[in-house]
Specification:
Belongs to the nucleoporin Nup133 family. This protein is of the alpha+beta class.
Amino acid sequence: MDRSFQSSFSVKSPFSPRSRQNISSKRIIPPSFRKSSRLSVSGKSTQSVQIVLKSAHNYVERFGQPLPVLITEALTFADRNTVVSARISECGYAWVVCGRRLLIWQYRTTSSAPGTPQRKHGGINQCFELQLPQSDLAHRAELVSVFIAAGSNAPSCIAVSPEGVLRYWPAVVHEGVTVEQTVDLQGQECDSLTGVEGLGCILATTTCTVVLVQPQVTGGRHVLQCKPLRTPSGWLGGISKRMSSLIFGPISNEHSSETRLVRVLSVPNSDGTWIVYVLAGHSLQKWILSTSDAEQLVSVAELHRLVRDSFHAAVWDNCVGDQAEIDTWLLDIQSDKDNIIVLAAAVNMQMSPQVHYAMISFSTNATTQIRDFLLLKMSGLYREDKPSDSLSYRFLLCGTNAYLYNLKTITVVKPQEEPDTLEFNSSQDLLLGGSICVNTPIFFSRINGLVTVSSNEQLVGDYMNLSMMGTSIPVETFSEMVGVNNLSVYNMDPDEIFNAYKDTVGQLKAAFIFHIRNQQSSTILGIDSTLDKVVVLMCKDLLDDIPAGDPRWNKDAPLGIGSSYSMQVLHQLEDKQKALSLYLKFLKDSGLWNRLSACNMRDMPTATESCPKKITAAIVLKSLPNSLILENAIEKAIEHFESEPGNGLTNQDIFYREVSKVHRGIQELVTCCEDSAHSDLNPAQVAQIVHDTNEIVLTVLNEVIQYRNQNIETFIPSEEAKLLNLDYLPWTAANGVEGVADALLLQHALTFGYGLKLTSQGQLRNSLLDHFVALTDLVLDGRKCHLESIKNTPRENILYKQYCSDRHKLIKPLSNIRPKLFVAADTLHNLAREEAESLTRQKTMLSLSKLAKLAGPNTTDSKSYIENINSHLELITFQEDLPDYVLQEFGYDTLKPRVIPPKDLVHLYICNEYTDAGELEFKKALDILPFIEDEELREELHLKIWRSAILRDSWTYKNLDYPLEILQGTLFFRLVDLSIALGANPNSLLPPLDTLTEDQCMQDLQDNKNFQFLIKPVTNMFSDRKC
């Protein structure tokens, strides 16, 4: 195996990733060659690796380079009603069909030697866009074939519309040069176009008409010749169906209907001919095609009886019943040397709806016979209304392994091992196709692009071998890399960084990369104030690193450890977040975190906390819908940034690159709002701008605070820092250009002066009141954090008095609107509790009551009073969380909602009409119970919630070999597990089982042995937890 790489490197930064500059040295190779795919002998990465998902035995990782921008945009912005499909060819090209758009790109170059294809810098990632023929039906990638004609370096393409209009591009680089021809298919719909190298393509219709399409040059002009491949007479060679039933046995109604095409498979022979298999229904045609002789039909075989009898012997041999009750399907076909392997499925609805799958090897040389029958240890559930749920599998063969896949899963089947299923859980992700590329299984994921499946054992073996060569990249690193999106840090050489950069920041970066590789750095970092400054400075550098994959950025600037190869800004931000997470883990694992003490910076001793919060703020800000005021704020904010728009870079590119200055965006948002308030806009327009600005600011900062609360343990200061009794003032509460406290105070004043004062009664006013309360909470939250950091110090009393004074000032403006508000807290609270007509009015009165109480003097009941109001606001949130379709089902007005009593809220959360309700919704129903004062009614509803959770599942499982796995899939179990995880008391969580099953609605389960058997482990589990 050739492991030589180019050695002539120009002088460059060692931060430049090798894999991106030496693209010609990359290889796309099978697992047995995987060492050279990602790492050279010296341990330098030659490919950016991303593990997308992982199971106990296998993992899915990104394959090759990122998708071309045109492909990414098409997948991202495709209309939800547009059919998007993709296909991967073995010749190195892949394509996506989106509406009438055909997008073709080269994902690997032609190999220079068998098994070791070399990538070129120029051709890879270039994308060609072609226009497909007009059609009333949806175009699909299966109706396109891309190939390289003999003597040509440029790819050619043939596409056909579902109606049979062929379009041929002799060279896709010349999109305007086409040949168009219509095939007379007599109204049949085209199903697939299968390439036959050197001959053309096989066009097949859904009802099994097969046509050989050959591109030719006649008189200097490109033409298409279409030649139907005809069987002697029908699929059975002139034998009637009645006669065929006598020979092959009775054929079920399922298979006596019109035969539908399953798959066309072309297989090259060593003598230059091609074997073409056409599988339709249960019939198999075998053709031989060549460039010199006419096509030859070798055989036509009926496989139904052979498949059905094999399933009967393997699954239902000991069952009473007729074999004719077994329905079978042939799902896909692949070649295996001189044989073929068929993926088949079978179900006996008289026994159960469980679908069984098998891989069946057929010999097709003389007579078609079964050589081997492998029943797979996987099953599905057949639904007559949606048969595709269990019958949509395709499969690939790669060595001794098989890969079964559908839109959401890949199941790896290996000899002598249990099938291992990798599931793509994202609702937006779909597997659009699969192929074998140089003995490597490749799939096209709508979200992740090209991916491949590898064994965890192979991963361990690769890196064990590499460890012996002086490179140690542990499996744990790759477990942590799940979801990491093209981070350049994995391609950097720590030795080069260590030797080239002797400054402290460079040394720390080298130590960080050594840590990722599980190596010990030879550098010894000093324990002094320099370390603190360097840690924070490196954090800032990481946040501000330029994107690695965007050509618009200055490539003279070195790539950093936070650089991303993604072309989308949001993904770049998410990648920086992941890199920052790795960096913080490095600080913890290396012991540096405990050496941090203090630094003359605002956020120290936990200076690194501001960085995750800023990246969180940037991600939330980028996720918000575009608005004019946000665009104006970003334009003003980047005036303070180092980079400038130009070379195609937009304001957003600049703004979201320098994440450390994201707070400037919030400051400028408020400034733009203030400018609008002093402009010639009318009061209603100003109030609306104040409202819109509040929505943005509050959404971003509330997410930041939520992040802080969820990760508070991560940023606990070191013991050395605690001894210094330093102030902690988060950037959300800091004054001046480095914080947003001044901006929040200004927005607070604008909300009152130009929002509430200028707005009459209505929804806008109610929203502004909510915003006023939320802004008050934000400001006070920051002051409270500062106050808590100086407890038990001489400054505590002074700052506490200042805090109380500031709190009074923040709420005092409301007295100008309603002078007697401060004495009306109880009245407002009582009115809110009695309010039944308007949920919005109740929420507003509760918020005002809370403000009035906070503005008044402290009393002994202040704390409990506020907690009581917060509790009622929580109940309102429960109602607001209910989907509109559930409320409308029961006749509730969703535009002007009335107050729904707690008992009715419980019913709404657990009703059958709430089809999307899961364990979280049922947990909310349990959380509403304390609001019900009637104890008897509360107990009754408690039982009803658990009974409804049980009845959401059928409990009619046929196979109980793995009871715990079955239980984990039930709503009942998931609700129990969630409740315990959220702190519920196991002793009072579940009612007694006898009480649960006493009700009439549970009558069917009282004698259900399966239910009794499955529910017992839960009882035992609770017994263990109670102990």
